[in-house]
């Protein structure tokens, strides 16, 4: 990105960089604000691929899938890079076009992706199958050596979680519980709610301590009132 910004006048490059930093910092916690910063960067430097990509992710985070897809396509035209292929396919899903996402999953571009990108494409394809009501096909799509590997990779938790969720949707609860547990083992950063899903399957209910305190206080008051009446 720095090299791309070097093509701009220094003051302009600094302004664009500041906005891109804000996009990166806010996109998870405040996607709407990140989107606003991305629009500023886009207005300042629409011919910079990194800006178009950042604008795409900000739009994607706010579920503006048509806009995100347009930005990702622009960034890809500028760079020739295929890394954005899976998220572009997921935009098609967001636009209600799962068939297009599946078509993209079979295109030659997928073969140019690294392992992480190929796994991401598989997740998108499985999601498209589920969008179309093809739950068994979604389960098969997620199966493969990456799913069965004992090696934990950055994408392992999400892949195992998606597989468990698909199994549960198919009514295969015992298998789903096994894979939610495997997802939890791989989820070192808390990227999924696998622990909550496991607890739900085991019938565990979490009680809010504050609610208990409030209820307890009400009970004491009622008891005091009863004592006064007696």
Automatic annotation (TrEMBL):
InterPro entries: TPR-like_helical_dom_sf. Residues 208-230 have a biased composition (Acidic residues). Residues 203-230 are annotated as: Disordered. It holds the Pfam family TPR_19. This is Tetratricopeptide repeat protein. It comes from Streptomyces niveus (Streptomyces spheroides).
């Amino acid at each position: 990105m720095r090299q791309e910004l070097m093509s701009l006048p220094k003051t302009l490059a600094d302004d664009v960089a500041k906005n891109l930093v804000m996009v990166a910092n806010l996109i998870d916690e405040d996607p709407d604000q990140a989107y606003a910063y991305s629009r500023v960067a886009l207005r300042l430097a629409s011919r910079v691929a990194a800006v178009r990509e950042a604008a795409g992710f900000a739009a994607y985070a706010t579920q503006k899938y048509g806009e995100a897809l347009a930005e990702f396509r622009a960034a890809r035209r500028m760079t020739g890079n295929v890394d954005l292929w899976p998220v572009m396919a997921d935009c098609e899903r967001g636009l209600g076009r799962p068939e297009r996402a599946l078509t993209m999953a079979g295109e030659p571009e997928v073969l140019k992706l690294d392992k992480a990108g190929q796994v991401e494409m598989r997740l998108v394809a499985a999601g498209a199958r589920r969008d179309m009501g093809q739950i068994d096909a979604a389960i098969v799509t997620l199966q493969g050596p990456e799913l069965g590997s004992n090696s934990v990779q950055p994408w392992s938790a999400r892949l195992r979680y998606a597989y468990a969720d698909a199994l549960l949707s198919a009514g295969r609860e015992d298998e789903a519980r096994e894979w939610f547990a495997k997802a939890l083992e791989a989820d070192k950063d808390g990227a999924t709610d696998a622990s909550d899903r496991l607890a739900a399957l085991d019938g565990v209910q979490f009680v809010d301590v504050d609610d208990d305190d409030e209820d307890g206080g009400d009970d004491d008051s009622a008891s005091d009132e009863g004592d006064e009446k007696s």
